[in-house]
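RECORD TYPE: inverse folding
INPUT: structure tokens
STRUCTURE:
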């Protein structure tokens, strides 16, 4: 892969590094409100994934492969900061964070996975999701990004945004600047249907993990419960009055949760013999 991630650094350079990974059609700026609540204590790196924000290459002919992308991400972070990192990932970013931890756990101090999935284990269900991802990509190509966004955010998983019209309008406005070629490419090549599933690896992942979901997102709350039952160091935090986008819908609560999670982990490490 001959591309580079775009990374914005904020906060205390001497603080423990925290890497923030956004979701599909998002950008590093999505984490602004959360980072503002953490940068007094931590060294924060907000990453733009390929085809998003400031990381859109000139050409789209280079294939994106999920596992290789996760590996390249960790190489990039290691060049910026050679300490083990906390990783906070939402949706697509959470899926990449989990893949990175499964392949390189020694480089990961802890994980915060928000509304994220380990992939799809059932082959038939995975093929169905591949077809769905391809159909969404075709909608972008046929109808343009703005019509696609209206339909995308009408999905049940985003139902909570209907009660937050200002946030929904902001998301639609910001996402409308997404490069449609790259949006379609990411759906086809980085969607859950083509993500190598890591369910079988969760039991061996000895990394402290916080699984964050919104109370109104029942699908991902149930998924987090399944993940917690398999992971040796995982806990679930269900945030009231929030749906799929917890960090945008409830930034104060989200930032408080992860600050407490990090601080508890550092305290335990310092007190270990």
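DESIGNED SEQUENCE:
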């Amino acid at each position: 892969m001959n591309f580079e991630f775009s990374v914005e650094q904020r906060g205390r350079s001497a603080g423990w590094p925290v890497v923030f990974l956004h979701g599909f059609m998002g950008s590093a700026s999505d984490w602004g409100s959360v980072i503002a609540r953490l940068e007094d204590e931590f060294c924060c790196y907000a990453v733009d994934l390929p085809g998003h924000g400031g990381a859109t290459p000139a050409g789209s002919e280079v294939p994106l492969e999920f596992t290789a992308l996760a590996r390249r991400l960790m190489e990039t972070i290691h060049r910026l900061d050679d300490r083990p990192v906390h990783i906070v990932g939402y949706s697509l970013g959470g899926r990449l964070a989990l893949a990175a931890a499964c392949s390189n756990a020694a480089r990961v101090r802890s994980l915060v996975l928000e509304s994220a999935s380990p992939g799809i284990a059932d082959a038939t269900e995975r093929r169905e999701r591949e077809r769905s991802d391809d159909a969404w990509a075709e909608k972008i190509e046929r109808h343009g990004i703005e019509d696609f966004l209206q339909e995308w955010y009408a999905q049940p998983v985003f139902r909570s945004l209907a009660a937050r019209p200002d946030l929904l309008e902001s998301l639609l406005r910001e996402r409308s600047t997404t490069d449609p070629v790259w949006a379609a490419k990411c759906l086809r090549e980085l969607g859950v249907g083509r993500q190598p599933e890591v369910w079988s690896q969760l039991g061996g992942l000895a990394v402290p993990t916080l699984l964050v979901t919104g109370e109104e997102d029942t699908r991902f709350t149930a998924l987090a419960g399944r993940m917690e039952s398999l992971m040796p160091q995982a806990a679930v935090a269900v945030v009231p009055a929030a749906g799929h986008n917890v960090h945008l819908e409830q930034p104060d609560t989200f930032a408080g949760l992860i600050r407490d999670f990090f601080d508890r982990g550092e305290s335990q490490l310092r007190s270990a013999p």
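NOTES: The two ends are 42 Å apart (CA to CA).
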